[in-house]
Amino acid sequence: MGLREKKSHGGYRSLKSYQTTTLVYDLTVEFCNRYMTCSTNKSYRTYDQMVQAARSGRQNIAEGSQASATSKKTEIKLVGVARASLEELLVDFEDFLRQRGLKLWEKDSLTAKKVRDLAYKADKTYETYRSYLKDPETAANCIICLIHQANFLLDRQLVSLEKLFVKQGGYSENLLRKRLEFKNNNRAIEQ
Prior knowledge:
Elements: H1 16-35, H2 41-67, H3 72-99, H4 110-117, H5 126-129, H6 136-168, H7 171-190
Helix pairs in contact: 1-2, 1-6, 2-3, 3-6
């Protein structure tokens, strides 16, 4: 690859992790608009933090993917930030349910399985999950299922990125290797 050729990067829109975090973000915004009261400053802060955590989960995947052209290390870091943001959001939804005396679905409940099975639909969108927003308990649990799916995908993505980084090195390492090859080739020509 010549120095002027671009390394492949971007393409985040086709990543299942990005698609799932987009659903998490959109559904979280709708959930907060419907079920989080903003009458007090304290309530607004939680509302805002939940929306920002969902947004961070999505945006850091996009940013990391773009940064991958020059820094695989930055890509790994940003995907890790996305994962951490979603974990924060997961705890917020669990807190929402607990503090209101609402039920957290068991992992193997029929309803949770129905939501998880939607992940296999090829054309899933916000509309696929819209019916689950009918009440706060169902909505929170649906989003929790999606967060678990996104976290699973991000964990796999991180493992893959780390293996690739170990195998191929980073941008700086590869530039240094090319620079050393260039210097060694020029010395050989001069001799």
